[in-house]
Design brief:
Chain lengths: 408, 239
């Protein structure tokens, strides 16, 4: 993509024009004793994003999805250009035309998977296995692409993970646990001849498998976050995540506790409603009472634990990311964040989804403005020795479509 | 740290605008001027006046990407991968306080084709009227897809799926329904016959002239599209 024809119209190459201030290949200065703190500022508004969102939706639909990468670039550019740190905004540089390939690849993969699972269960399973086998590669490609196309103060970020060992080390164990879970379920179902005993064995296997997944999930999540946060880099600064596994476990178990508490609150209430209704009014009326309550239960179950874990994990992970030169701090109010999510979902429901972009912006604003950056060196005179490499744009869209959250 | 406001009181008249240059290799800003004349855009060093880069106007849209200009978003001009070798990934930042002046300056000085904020999509996104039109079109296209796109897609897919697969899926589904959910009827033979006859009478009423499709006489493949076309609309026929 390099065109040299314009070199004639370029009187002085930039490198030579640079003042000889000795900034080339400089080592990092000694970190000073004084710590500067600067807050992240987010200036996006719901109204503005609503307009972008509507136009994006229209164009995605009338182009049958071809517009997806353009929509994504416009959205990310809007988010990034409104995220200011120390007076300078982030910017996103992905080129939609290059990202289109990823959209098409993901579309083809989806079509193959759909066709295979329609054809037979075995074919569907094989397609799923293939998808799972390439998912880690897609994830890594997406991380690299996203970081390489994100800049602050003109310098691109990098995702420094090399090779495929690391990413498979992160993704294979949970895949194996899921596989073992499925195997136990399948075996326990087919082993028992007696239906009642079979059901009991099946239930037992289900319970054990479920506990296995709940117990290992924090570990896998922690490994994934280690993999991500240890490979973020900007210029000469490489991030490190220094958070012991036990902290992630405690956040997850508190989240599980919230699920249990929600159930403990709602289930007795629903139970107590059942016999209190007059027998004569029939079953229909009982459902009339219990059904809305059940929906509220599901909604609370869907919002509360998720909001809780999002806020707690953000505070935990971003307050432990940095090195001796710089460090982030995240002070997101957990109760405020949970309250915001309830408000968001309520307004989304009563506006038939039109509140969605406002909810996205509100959430982003609260999450981003909770973050501050502490530095012990000036950030305005750093040079990038290892330039960010332009990475495969295909992975980004493909991973996006398969629902990976590359969010940072 | 930001660009000085060398940007005059009247941005429409000033041919040059003060910006901060980031070269992509360091986080250090350099004060520069972006200057536009009839033939080219130039980046000038604000301290020495040295001409750092000159881009002919007709190449501007390929080498520079202008910001779309949201209310409080940063105004960052990107130099693209097609910019001269040393300039790829370089950026020009306007100071936050210069936002409005920058937008006005871009509107008057940068040719429309190089200006991202002048594109139709960007303009639609900037105005509530454009968004209202987009919203109406969105609803219309959703309704249109449901009314016309879905049947066309269904017909297209049935035409593409091989006959054997179609038949296999149908047979499979029927077998599953028969095997899993259906049990032999416990009604007396008389009751069964009565119900069957009532059903057949209903079918006759629906197809007064034509006989209903008989599974024993499936037409040959070449007649298939005709068979697959939904029956002419009967009221209360389906949900």
């Amino acid at each position: 993509m390099i065109t040299n024809n314009s070199i004639l119209s370029n009187p002085v190459p930039l490198t030579r024009a640079e003042p000889a201030s000795g900034t080339q290949a400089q080592a990092l200065p000694q970190p000073g004793a004084k710590i500067d703190s600067t807050d992240v500022e987010f200036t996006g508004t719901g109204g503005e994003y609503f307009r972008i969102w509507i136009v994006n939706l229209l164009l995605i639909i009338v182009t049958f999805g071809i517009y997806l990468p353009w929509a994504k670039v416009r959205k990310l550019k809007y988010f990034y250009n409104n995220t200011h740190l120390d007076g300078h905004a982030l910017d996103f540089h992905g080129e939609p035309k290059k990202m289109l390939r990823g959209t098409l690849i993901a579309g083809v993969l989806f079509a193959i998977y759909n066709a295979a699972s329609n054809f037979s269960a075995v074919a569907g399973l094989i397609a799923l296995a293939v998808l799972m086998a390439i998912a880690p590669l897609l994830f890594r490609a997406a991380m690299r692409f996203r970081l390489a196309n994100t800049s602050w103060r003109g310098m691109r970020m990098r995702f420094t993970a090399e090779g495929v060992k690391g990413v498979y080390g992160v993704f294979l164990p949970p895949i194996i646990v899921l596989f073992v879970f499925g195997l136990i379920l399948g075996l326990s179902g087919s082993l028992a001849k007696n239906p009642t005993a079979g059901f009991r064995v099946f239930g037992l296997a289900m319970g054990v498998g479920f506990l296995l997944i709940l117990g290992t999930l924090p570990y896998f999540f922690w490994r994934l976050k280690q993999y991500q946060h240890n490979h973020y880099a900007w210029g000469p600064l490489k991030a490190e995540l220094r958070s012991p596994m036990i902290d992630t476990y405690s956040v997850f178990f508190l989240t599980y506790l919230w699920v249990v508490l929600t159930a403990l609150f709602f289930i007795p209430v629903m139970w107590s409603l059942m016999p209190s209704l007059p027998q004569a009014s029939g079953k229909a009326l009982q459902f009339l009472w219990i059904l809305p309550l059940f929906f509220v239960f599901l909604i609370v179950l869907n919002i509360l634990p998720r909001a809780y874990i999002t806020a707690q994990m953000q505070n935990l992970l971003w307050s432990r990311t940095g090195n001796r030169y710089f460090r982030f701090k995240s002070e997101l109010g957990v109760a405020a964040f949970i309250g915001l999510q309830f408000k968001n979902y309520f307004l989304i429901a009563i506006t038939f989804g039109l509140y969605w972009p406002f909810a996205v912006i509100n959430t982003l604003r609260m999450r981003l403005q909770a973050i501050s950056l502490k530095t012990r060196i000036p950030l305005d005179k750093l040079t990038d020795a290892a330039r960010a490499r332009e990475n495969d744009a295909a992975g980004d869209m493909a991973a996006d479509i398969f629902g990976f959250d590359v969010g940072m | 740290m930001t660009a000085m406001s060398a940007n005059g009181a009247s941005p429409q008249q000033a041919k040059a605008f003060a910006l901060s240059l980031f070269d992509g290799r360091s986080s250090q800003a350099r004060p520069v001027l972006l200057q536009i004349d009839e033939h080219s855009a130039q980046i000038l060093c604000r301290q020495t006046g040295q001409n750092l880069l000159k881009i002919p106007l007709q190449k501007l849209h390929k080498q520079m990407r202008l910001p779309e200009g949201y209310a409080k978003g940063a105004r960052i001009i990107e130099l693209t991968q097609r910019a001269p070798l040393d300039w790829q990934n370089a950026q020009l930042h306007a100071a936050p306080q210069d936002r409005e002046a920058f937008d006005a300056w871009v509107r008057t000085n940068i040719p429309a084709q190089a200006n991202a904020s002048a594109s139709l999509v960007a303009r639609a996104q900037q105005s509530w009227r454009g968004v209202a039109v987009a919203f109406a079109l969105l609803l219309a296209s959703l309704v249109g897809l449901y009314l016309y796109g879905l049947p066309v897609a269904a017909r297209g897919i049935t035409a593409l799926v091989p006959w054997s697969a179609d038949e296999a899926i149908g047979r499979n589904a029927l077998e599953q329904i028969d095997g899993r959910w259906m049990k032999p009827s416990k009604l007396s033979l008389a009751d069964q016959t009565r119900i069957r006859e009532r059903f057949l009478a209903g079918v006759k009423k629906q197809y007064p002239k034509d006989t209903p499709p008989n599974p024993a006489r499936i037409p040959p493949i070449r007649n298939r599209p005709q068979r697959l076309r939904p029956a002419r609309r009967h009221h209360g026929d389906d949900g």
